[in-house]
Specification:
By secondary structure, the protein is of the alpha/beta class. It folds into two domains: 156 residues, Glutaconate Coenzyme A-transferase (3-Layer(aba) Sandwich); 239 residues, Acetyl-CoA hydrolase/transferase C-terminal domain (Glutaconate Coenzyme A-transferase, 3-Layer(aba) Sandwich). 27% of the residues lie in helices and 22% in strands. Helix 5 runs parallel beside helix 6, helix 7 packs across helix 8 and helix 14 runs antiparallel to helix 15. It is globular, with a radius of gyration of 22 Å. The mean pLDDT is 95.
């Protein structure tokens, strides 16, 4: 096969000043990344993009000077967050449903390197759990390199889940370690309390978008034990929470208005059991994020329930979900997409969840409901925020005035901080003298 090359040979196509894309999650090209890092001293100012990628990323770790390689992420994984803390990763602000448009109209890609499943008899390589972002990037790239990973699950899709060999410039093969088995994050008691407040809002036939983390996992755990039935999946990120719902018989996708009978997702991160479930499953359809996350698509589904987490909320209803101060933790991702789409869905509801408090490094307790953000990065504007949930309850901020928002949010704050928050609200003139105390 003329296109088949060794990794060390293929990475020679990368030139100084190039933009190189590693795509997302399991799409990381392990062999090519290793080979490219070995060219460090030959190259200057090579810029690499990734998204939710597990470590190690050799090009980032081999050059702390960043004279040779500069790494960027659309949405930080735990590993990429650690790189950011070291100043070795730069975040790219994005709204996920615009991901394809960014590449089509604004972004330069000299080389894309992406892991794919082995080629089928028709000449197609499958993007697998990387379908959410890979297709638009490959179309934009000057040079397309696929790295065949023998462990990649084959995922059926709506469109853009595959690339044909005729569209590929180079192919790399080699042995890969099995994917790391990432067990679900075990929910805390506070996560279960939050989930218990949300469960009454979910109806039979609801279509679920569950984010990543302990609160969505608590929701999956609780729903699996509930009397709910015929639930649907329409989510940017598929995690083990959906596998638990499937195993409990709750996830059937039978009541969906679109993609009936199919659980729809863009990317997937989780355990080996999750990947085994997704592999060659005709009840699953992977789509690009331009479809999965587009609010007009989400709105076509009835009873969408979107559940995402955040870091903090202020009394005006602004949400910080991707950073702690200036420290980048994750990314905007699809939170805004699903806030908008779920709000437009008939019977839809969008929840943003958090514990009411957190413990600082000194051991002191701090409120996650703040008087007002000051320099924090805002993920969701107050004008689009719907339901907010803590372990003390759920409030709906849609259509509420500033004093109503302050009153509602103080009601679900930790009791130890409520008096101080009332004082702060009064100073900002968003507290009525006749408000409840």
């Amino acid at each position: 096969m003329l296109k088949l090359r060794k990794p060390e040979e293929v990475v020679k196509v990368v030139k100084s000043g190039d933009w190189v894309d590693y795509t997302s999650s399991l799409g990381k090209p392990v062999l090519l990344d290793r080979a490219l890092a070995k060219r460090r001293d030959e190259l200057w100012d090579v810029k690499i993009r990734g998204n939710l990628i597990d470590g190690p990323i050799e090009v980032a770790e081999c050059d702390e000077s960043q004279e040779h390689f500069i790494y960027h992420s659309w949405h930080c994984s735990t590993y990429e967050r650690k790189l950011s803390d070291k100043g070795l990763c730069y975040y790219i602000p994005t709204v996920f449903h615009n991901n394809a448009a960014y590449y089509e109209y604004f972004i330069k890609v000299n080389v894309v390197m992406v892991s794919v499943s082995p080629m089928d008899k028709h000449g197609y390589f499958n993007y697998s759990v990387n379908t959410g972002v890979a297709g638009p990037i490959a179309r934009r790239a000057d040079i397309v390199i696929v790295e065949v990973n023998e462990h990649m699950p084959k995922i059926h899709g709506g469109y853009d889940e595959c690339i044909h060999i005729s569209e590929v410039d180079y192919i790399v093969e080699g042995d890969h370690e099995p994917f790391r088995d990432i067990p679900p994050i075990k929910p805390r008691s506070v996560d279960r309390q939050i989930a218990e407040h949300i469960i009454p809002y979910i109806v039979d036939g609801a279509n679920l978008q569950l984010g990543i983390g302990s609160i969505p996992n608590a929701m999956g755990e609780l729903i699996a034990r509930s009397d709910l039935k015929d639930l649907g999946m329409h989510t940017e990120l598929c995690t083990d929470a959906y596998l638990e719902l499937y195993r409990s018989g709750k996830l059937t996708n039978k009541k969906k208005n679109i993609d009936r009978g199919k659980g729809v997702f863009g990317c997937a991160i989780g355990s080996r059991d999750l990947y085994e479930w997704l592999d060659d499953n005709h009840g699953i359809a992977a789509y690009p994020l331009e479809y999965v996350n587009r609010p007009s698509v989400i709105a076509q589904l009835d009873n969408v329930v979107s559940i995402n987490s955040c870091v903090a909320v202020d009394l005006y209803g602004q949400v910080a979900a991707e950073s702690a101060g200036s420290r980048q933790i994750s990314g905007t991702g699809g939170q805004l997409d699903f806030l908008t789409g779920a709000s437009a869905s008939r019977g839809g509801k969008a929840f943003i969840c958090m514990s009411s408090i957190y413990k600082g490094k000194s051991g002191n307790i701090h409120s996650n409901i703040l008087p007002q953000f000051n320099g924090d990065i805002i993920t969701s504007p107050r004008s689009q925020v719907y339901f907010i949930a803590t372990e003390y309850g759920v409030v709906n901020l849609e259509g509420k005035s500033t004093w109503e928002r302050a009153e509602d949010l103080i009601h679900i704050a930790h009791p130890d901080f409520r008096d101080e928050l009332i004082k702060e609200a009064a100073e900002r003139k968003i507290w009525r003298r006749s408000n409840k105390r």
